[in-house]
Design goal:
This protein is mainly alpha-helical. It contains five helices and three strands, in the order αβββαααα. α3 (88-120) packs antiparallel against α5 (135-165).
Length: 176
């Protein structure tokens, strides 16, 4: 009986010592994580100017997988073949409509540009009544006019670019 009690006590002491010693050995030194640019690692590269992260752990979330071309192609074929082909007469009609819309937008932008230029007066717009007493308001309005002129110029350039991309209108009525 004495030997059983002695062996039980010895086993209890070993178990308590191992419970105390084991976790402190494994968790006493958490692994350091370093940030090297946009990469995170636990093995820093001295040449990469890595900095240790303080506190917390890093969670890595994997992105979604991109479908390959074969999967995308089969999805298009299953949905009815993608964009339907349009006969040439209908395409010419669409091109003509697009050109008319772009021309109208260009004319509207040109009118707006001419109006802004008239108000701009070579960088010295006419001062309003409240702007005589508050020069800051005048400077803000001048800056707004300058920005509006630049936006309108960019709009006109973009519209002209779009018009130049359209195929030339077929005025003879014959098909190619």
């Amino acid at each position: 009986m004495r030997s059983t009690l002695f062996s039980f006590l010895r086993l209890a002491i070993l178990a308590s010592l191992s419970a105390v010693v084991w976790p402190t050995g494994a968790a006493s030194e958490p692994q350091r994580i370093y940030r090297c640019g946009n990469a995170y690692t636990n093995q820093p590269d001295p040449a990469a100017n890595c900095k240790p992260l303080a506190g917390g752990s890093v969670t890595v979330i994997e992105g979604t997988r991109v479908q390959g071309l074969s999967a995308a192609g089969s999805a298009i074929n299953a949905s009815g073949g993608g964009a339907a082909k349009v006969d040439s007469a209908e395409q010419r009609q669409r091109d003509t409509q697009a050109q008319a819309v772009l021309q109208a937008e260009l004319q509207r932008a040109q009118k707006q540009y001419a109006e802004l230029l008239r108000e701009w007066r070579n960088g010295e717009p006419e001062r309003r009544a409240d702007e005589h007493r508050q020069p800051q308001k005048y400077q803000e309005r001048v800056a707004q006019l300058r920005a509006a002129l630049q936006r309108t110029e960019a709009d006109m350039a973009g519209l002209q670019r779009e018009l130049s991309r359209l195929p030339a209108a077929n005025t003879t009525g014959t098909q190619p």
